[in-house]
Amino acid sequence: MIQLQHVSKVFRKTGTAVHALKDVTLDIRAGEFTAIWGPSGSGKSTLLNIIGALDFPDDGDYLFNGESIRRFSDLEISRFRAANIGFIFQSYNLLPNLRAWENVVLPARYTGKRFNKAESKARAMKLLEQVGLSERSEHLPSELSGGEEQRVAIARALMNDPQVILADEPTGNLDTNNHQVILAILRELHSQGKTVLVVSHNPEVVEMTERTVRLRDGQLEEQ
Ligand SMILES: Nc1ncnc2c1ncn2[C@@H]1O[C@H](COP(=O)(O)OP(=O)(O)OP(=O)(O)O)[C@@H](O)[C@H]1O
Ligand SMILES: [Mg+2]
Predict the structure, then answer these.
(1) Pick the CATH number of 2-220 from 3.40.50.300, 3.30.420.10, 3.40.1190.10, 3.30.1330.30
(2) Which of 131, 183, 199, 215 would be a feasible disulfide site paired with 151, CB 3.0-4.6 Å?
(3) pLDDT per residue over 200-215, tens digit each?
(4) Which of 24, 45, 205 to mutate to test the pocket of ligand 1 (most atoms within 8 A of CB)?
(5) What phi and psi, each to the nearest 5 degrees, are found at residue 58?
């Protein structure tokens, strides 16, 4: 379902060019559980951002369900992202002035008319319950622990029921207990049939997944 074909990405900053990805060809099947592994600066986040259509290849092509993202307009790209991709970041990225459930409903805005207001809230509450946070739905991010913030971010990623979950070092800021809780949720999403890609430096994550994609200097090593 996810096909990267000879993808390259170059960042240019005042004179120097950084080749973040070099000729990366990669297929991810629907339902696959994949770890992305590699040293700092090897291109892991760049790869994830391209798969999530937050960034775009300079060269090569990205096909999702056989369709090239290249041909999409800006509006089609934001719709594509909202419908198909759930993002989980290391730093949670919750909006500070919105309550937990209000953060969770945000992605529904970008799909148009799928839910009315009451349905959106009901769905957000159900997702918060799934991540064990029913009691925290009215809290602001500043009133939550890091692990709780990340669980809100996971609920938010699931709001539009995307097929693909992209997690960029989702437990990077968390202690061991919270790390385990988040990994258990990712495992559960995989068992529900989601396609899960997780960037991590943690060997435990690599052991948990079916497949490891290794990057070095923007190039794919073994898989
Ligand atoms: N927006 C940008 N502008 C310029 N250079 C960038 C940009 N984003 C990333 N880079 C460079 O591209 C390379 C790959 O970055 P990337 O963030 O993908 O690495 P990473 O594998 O995720 O590293 P880390 O484990 O530290 O998060 C790095 O050398 C980085 O400095
Ligand atoms: Mg990174």
Answers:
(1) 3.40.50.300
(2) 131
(3) 988 889 999 999 999 9
(4) 45
(5) -85, -25
Q: Which amino acid is at 59?
A: D
How far apart are the C-alpha atoms of 177 and 34, rounded to whole Å? 22
Structural tokens at position 38: 């590699």
| Ligand 1 within 6 A of CB of 49 | no
Q: How far is CA 113 from the centre of its chain?
A: 23
DSSP 76-145: HHHHHHHHHEEEE-TT----TTS-HHHHHHGGGGGG-SSS-HHHHHHHHHHHHHHTT-GGGTT--GGGS-
Determine if ligand 1 sits within 6 Å of the CB of residue 41: yes
DSSP letter for each residue of 12-26: EETTEEEEEEEEEEE
Q: Give the model confidence (pLDDT) of 169-178 as tens digits.
A: 999 999 999 9
Measured distance CA(4)–CA(7) in Å, rounded: 6
Verdict on whether the full-model pTM lies above 0.85: yes
